[in-house]
Specification:
The chain is mostly helical and 74 residues long. The chain has a domain of 47 residues. Helices cover 59% and strands 0% of the residues. The protein is rod-shaped.
């Protein structure tokens, strides 16, 4: 004879199993430890400092008058 099962319980068990598989996949894709996050942030900060250190500063041209007119013309 076949075993009688409760369909509601079987459906819920199947849904729990599918959700657990999805959660495991998400942990593999998105889960990072605190140390990994800190390392990535430190690397990004270092890169930004490196780029900022190589920026060229814009020099103001003395032959042009300021646009806002705050400086008196000589």
């Amino acid at each position: 004879m076949t075993e009688i099962i409760n369909l509601r319980q079987a459906r819920k068990a199947r849904n729990r199993q599918e959700k657990e598989k999805q959660a495991e996949a998400n942990r593999a894709l998105f889960g990072r430890t605190k140390g990994q996050k800190a390392k990535d942030k430190a690397e990004a900060d270092k890169l930004n400092r490196h780029l900022d250190g190589h920026k060229l500063t814009t020099l103001s041209r003395p032959d042009k008058a300021p646009e806002d007119g705050s400086e008196a013309a000589t």
